[in-house]
Specification:
alpha+beta
């Protein structure tokens, strides 16, 4: 568990399939993540989470509501990539992504990492570009559909 703030945390493991599937059936979310507007099937979602859990530490982003903790997105913590999705639209645009990335940068420093990388953020995903830039990441190079980023620690 990584506590971000009182009502925001990262819980190790994947979100509930039904909650996550709703996020990845939103074609705008999928476009920002994959660069295509093609909703995920349950099988594709499960394959993605299996891959992310092998590539790094998969976390469910949770926010505390009156009824308890609610899954609102996912993030994978790896030195080579930090893909993050705020899947629940009610929680977007509140700076939560920035708080999460800042907490993962602090965790990376504690672990003695010298740098963190983001493999690719698509050109149209301006919110994600701004989030990572605000957290000290710089464009490393242009990619086929966007840019890769790097942050020295």
């Amino acid at each position: 568990m990584i506590e971000i703030e009182e009502k925001l945390r990262l819980r190790r493991g994947k979100p509930n399939d039904s909650e996550a599937l709703a996020w990845y059936q939103d074609q705008e979310v999928v476009y920002l993540v994959d660069g295509v507007r093609e909703s995920y099937s349950l099988e594709k979602l499960q394959r993605m989470y299996a891959y992310l859990d092998q590539a790094g530490e998969l976390y469910t982003i949770e926010a505390q509501e009156e009824t308890g903790w609610k899954a609102i997105g996912d993030v994978t913590f790896s030195q080579n990539d930090v893909p993050i999705v705020i899947g629940n639209p009610a929680y977007r645009g509140q700076g939560l992504g920035k708080k999460i990335i800042q907490a993962l940068v602090a965790e990376a420093k504690k672990r003695g990492y010298s740098e963190l990388h983001v493999r690719e953020i698509y050109q149209d995903n301006v919110a994600s570009q701004k989030c990572f830039t605000a957290c000290g990441f710089e464009i490393q190079r242009e990619t086929e559909k966007g840019y890769s980023y790097r942050r020295d620690l």
